[in-house]
Amino acid sequence: MSDYFRNFIDGTWVDGSSGDRIDIEDPATGETFAQVARAMPTDVDRAVAAARECVDERRLIGMKPADRGRYLVDMGRWMRDRRDEIARLLTIDSGKTIEEAGWEVDGCAGYLEYYGGLAPMVEGSYIPVGDGIVDYAIPVPFGVSAHIIPWNYPLDIAGRGLGPALAVGNSVVVKSPELDPTTITYIAKAAEEVGLPAGALNVICGYGHDAGDALSKHPHVNQITFTGSVETGQKVLHAAAESVIPSVVELGGKSAAIVLPDADLDRVTEQTRWGIYSNAGQVCSAMSRL
Questions:
Q1: pLDDT value at position 277?
Q2: What pLDDT was estimated at residue 269?
Q3: Helix (H) or strand (E) holding 60
Q4: 83 near 105, Cβ under 8 Å?
Q5: Sign of torsion over alpha carbons 215, 41, 50, 196
Q6: Distance between terminal CA atoms of the chain?
C-alpha cells in the first residue's frame, strides 16, 4: 500500500505546487498511515486548464459515443478486478467495515459501467413545426464539470457524478475529501490504465476553504456537482450564481439519532451505523448487480 498519494492532472501524477502534504489518519487508531499532496488554488487552475483544453480540443466530444462508453465500462471492470485491494484501503481510510467498503467499490464500478452503456443512447430530437422549416435539438455537454466529494461515500459518489459527465463528453475535475481521499485515486488509475484522453479526468485533494472554494468560483468551470453540508452548499451556490453556473447540490445532516437512558447500546451502535450507510449501501448493492 502506498504511503503517499499525488494529484492527477492532465494525465500525470503530480505533487502540489506548494509542496505541502495532508496527513491521512486511520480513524480506528488516530494514527497517520499516509499522506496526500495538498492542492492549492494554483493546482486548481492547472486542473481546470487541463480539463478546458480537453474540451476545446474535443478529445471526448468528437469521439463516437460508444467509444466514450467503452472507456467507462473498461474503467469499471478494472476497478472490479481490484475490489479487495481498494476495499481494504477504503476501510483503513474511512473507518467503514470491509463489507461496506466492498459494496462501495461495486457501486462505483457499477456507475461507470451503467453510464458507459448509456453513452451511445443519448439522442437529440426532431421537432415538427410545419412545411419549409427544419427544427431539431442536439444535446451538447456543459464543458468542464467540477465535482466536490464528501467523506461518507467518497468512491461511490465520485463514480455517480463523473460517470454521466464523461459519458456525454464533459471533462471533469474532482476535489476529493481531505479526510479520506485515497480510493478516489483508483478511479484516476483506472482512467490512466484504459487510456482515457489526458485532461478528461483530473483528481485533486485539498481543503475546502482553498481548493474547494477556488474550484467552485473558477471562471472556466461550466457545471458544479456538490454533496455536503448546507452551510458549504450555500457558499457553492452563491459562487455559482455569481457566474450563472448550473449546479447540482445534495445537502443536509447525516442520520441523527436520539439515545434514551435504557437503550441497548450494542443495538444502538449497529442501527446507527445502518442509519448512516443503509441508503447508500442499497444503491451500491443495486449498482453492483447491473
A1: 62
A2: 84
A3: none
A4: yes
A5: negative
A6: 30
Sorted by sequence, the CB contacts under 8 Å of residue 166 that are 6+ apart come out as 60, 68, 71, 72, 115, 172, 196, 200, 201
Q: Which residue has the cell 444502538?
A: 268
**pLDDT, tens digit, 9 for 90 and up, residues 256-270:** 788 999 999 988 888
Q: Say whether 67 sits in a helix, a strand or coil.
A: helix
Distance CA 49, CA 220 (A): 8
Note if 284 is an active site residue. yes
Q: Coil, strand or helix: which one is 18?
A: coil
**Catalytic pick among 54, 108, 205, 284:** 284
Q: What is the pLDDT of residue 234?
A: 94
pLDDT at res. 286? 45
Q: Which residues of 105-124 are buried (b: 16+ CB within 10 A; e: fewer)?
A: bbbbbbbbbbbbbbbeeeee
pTM of the prediction? 0.89
Per the annotation, the verdict on 31 as an active-site residue is: no
What's 130's DSSP letter? -
Sites in the chain below the pLDDT cut of 50: 281-290
The one-character DSSP state at 97 is -
Alpha helix segments (H runs only) across the chain: 41-56, 65-81, 83-94, 98-118, 154-167, 184-194, 213-216, 230-243, 265-288
The pLDDT value recorded for residue 254 is 65
Of the residues 57, 99, 242, 250, only one is catalytic, namely: 250
Identify any residues that bridge with 224 across adjacent strands, giving them in sequence order.
Answer: 146, 247
- For 50-103, write each residue's pLDDT tens digit: 999 999 999 999 999 999 999 999 999 999 999 999 999 999 999 999 999 999
